[in-house]
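Quick board copy: two proteins, each given as sequence then tokens.
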Amino acid sequence: MQNMESLSSTAAGQEPPIAMVAGLPFHLLNKEEAVEECLRLMEWDATHYIVTANSDFIAQSSKNEELRDIIFHADRIFADGMPIVWLSHLFKYPLPARVTGADLILPLLQGCEDQNKSVYFFGAEPEVQDHLRTYLKEHYPSLKIAGMASPPVGTIDSWDNEAYSADIRAAQPDLLFVALGCPKQETWIHRFYQQTGVPLSIGVGASLDFIVGRQIRAPKAIQKMGMEWLWRLSANPSRLFKRYVHDFFTLSELTLKQWIAQNMKTDTSLKESNLVNPCLGDWELVILSGDVDASKVSNIQDPEIESKPVVIECSAVTFLDSSGLGKLIQWARRAKAVQQPICLLNPSRAVSFLIESVNLQEQFPSAKTVWGISAILKKSKDETSAHKTKTPFRILPNDEAMDATTVGDLEQTVLEVARKAPQNQVIEMDMSRVTMIDSYAIGRFINMKRRLWQQKNDLVLVDMSKTVHDVLRLLRLDQILTTGGDVESLPNPNQIKTRGPFNSDLSLKGHRRTA
């Protein structure tokens, strides 16, 4: 039950193509497209986070499994550095441009001011925040600032994160900028972005220092040349030299591994899949063969990942390039978002070597036989269903009528319980006292279920009266709200239209968040 997120590629439209560079995936977007993606993600009724990863992110994530997983499953990953863009050309699926956190901030502030959206700033020193307030008043006078917070020096675990999250949630911002530096900001965002309930969270590192003039960014000409890293090194050599040298050698090593793996070809005599029967299990089978490269990847049909596990039979794949690997990564990200397993059946040497070179073995478990695949899927199913053995937590509303005047307090109670609950906890809403429910309250229940799903928990309604059950049944929500899972089937709460006490008209076209 990961962020239904995210993957917001499935929740918020088609995910952009992905290219793998030195062990991390990056979306193929330029600056303007990245800004549009951010503004679009802010419109959806779900929480998202974005990572702008530079060479240091690559170096740190190569040794930090948690950071690598955080970046891998971010809603969007942008290349914050020209070295990454240059290296992407080696893999024949080049990134169009770099997109830095500093490039995103000002356009997003302008977009928020134009669209009457609010922004919260978390991190940076109090002095920087004071200068930032002055700057925003002068340049964005109509911008709604939801709040600012500056945690003290120390580890994340030493902070009062419950209070910070509650303050951000109460402020209800549309956009959260987190300026703590890598990996602290990415770790904090990943741990708390669902609790804060902010539609979009972005780590921006030292970008706020650039805005207020505490640090001077390289001139535009140097930025266009891709030499901003050299400008920063010359400005602070004692702090950055050792880091840049380490990043250079790590990036070179990872790039060489991927380049060798991507240029490996399996014996071309393997033309047909060795799988005799494509219907050997309760999964969706995808058979790949030959050269899986940029010329073919657009013709590969995406599997129905939301409905069943996906097994990729790839024994006859002779070549896999960055675009083909990017397609597999998209599938793995979608699978993680809906907690469906995805695995490789008898991968060829070209596939297995490339997967190993970029450290994706955890995302793509593999087996040589159908029986091995069955064991992988069974283990995944057992882990996913483990929450069913836990005793559900039950909440009993006191009000007989569930409407706009009563459901708000109940929603806060549910979310507070879920925030403190362990993962995979089922929260039961005892509806035995409720005799009336309106469309607004039903919409809030849908929102609660989505939010709990994102936190790897679930909400189910139990012991409801016949009147309430009939309303849900006529809205076609009786099975969805009274059983675990099926969150992808939930409509947008704002698109539930009632024509009288029981009649309904549902639109299931999207989950767009309205202001």
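And the next:
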Amino acid sequence: MTSAKMIAVIMSISLVIAGAGAFILLKDTAADLTVAVGTKDCYEPWWIADELGYFRDAGVKIDIISVSGGGKATEAILAGRADIASAGTDPLIKVLNEGRGKYNLIGTYQNGESFLRMAAWNYDDDPSSTNTTADLEDPETLIGKVIGLDVTTGYYSAIIKYMNLNACTYEEITDVSQRKSDRVNIMHVPFNAQVPRLIGVGSVTQDIDAIIGGSYNLQAEYLAGNFSGGAPKVIISEEDGGTDQNFQSVPVFILATENAINNKGDAVMRMMEALQRACAFIYGVDEIDINDISSYTINDDACKLMADTGIFGLGWTKEIQKRSFEYSTWGLDFKVNDLNALKYSYDVIRKNSADRSTYRNVTDAEFFQFYDQRFMIALSEKGIINGYVPLVESAALGMNVSFTVDGDTAEDWSGISNDDLGNAVSFNTITSMVTGTLSEQGTPLWGTFDHHYLVFSLDGVEEGDDVRIAGMLDGRTTMTKYIVTAAEITDGKMVFIWGIEENENLVITVFRPGCLGYANTIYLNLVLSS
């Protein structure tokens, strides 16, 4: 190597301070990044940045591989054809399972309030059919129906989780001829075939009852006006429906190879700067504070841009794009709930895999180690993103809920003498399911109603933590808030005795100053005896 070249290499290294350590970004102005990007909604920031020249303005050359969705994007990164991929939870689980360090999450740019969006055939408008409308908000209407979705994406674990939470019997089939009348039928249908098979297009026969997905649901609603007979309708699952905030989270992750992180760091930083600028364009502003997203409105110019590109196919209008934008929030971020979404998807995939041994038991802490937040921290320090709160592993993920059934624990509470309180109750850390039998206390500990009492402790709490326990029952939510005092903590634990009713679920959230909230929903599957 010549002296001139050596000097150039040395001068190409830029140092970004991230927290207590130094983050070395190797600056190579000739380095391009190859990115696998889907052609369905939720990938708009990539296409906006490309269409408006934001990557060029940021000083990075991006080669885009156009793919159908997250499943194909992760296939590209596994095959070594891409440095960066964008995907939801299910495809990412398979990539991260390849080994820690080979691939890492470096952030998210989109989140939504509800994962399940279904376009269903409205049989009520079809006089020739005796079927009824399939409706996510009424799970029993799905019995006997065939739901088509791309099972390589995050919609798969979402619908399985939905089935389990609502006690729906389901079966995965490979052809509509295998349809069972006594259960929900789930079948793989590629994105580009979903609308034709839902409504019948050209030579394609309508043979499925509903589709789960994103853009194609909305597209089906638009196309419905072009066909006679029954009219498909879009159903958005906005109510709890047995789900919780972690399950409903819709993160779209940015995944990078180890080589891109270590050897193309400056290019990755510039790429993310352009993405954040594209997210700001969605709201028609120059910069975004991710903690104040609700104050922004969707930019009509961004909607028109995406409709005019033709990227999302026939019938994609400015109005449809606006609806799609409104279902989600946009801006670079990463939250604890994003890790929880990965945990849920991992559990579903592993349980339903033909070879479960291919998916090792990945815990919360290991998932945390799959996230390399140094880019987010560096972008925050540069002022490119506003409102990002760095995750602290011990604070953000160390507050796992554990349950105590020891009668001695109850005796620590003044006035409690029922040794059977919380008797024979167990907690499954994978499913967050509490099972067993709880005896009813004839004389209530408080209030005027008889209750069944659950004894549990929160591990890892600290003085000043904000603990909120919400009971979810019959569409109603009641919440109690506690500010933890030092006197209530013993060996890092705070013990609770909580009155519960039949079929009630609990959402326990812990907030800590300077950290993001850690939430855990407890699904109660208890026999409540008098």
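Board note added afterward: The chain has a mean pLDDT of 76.
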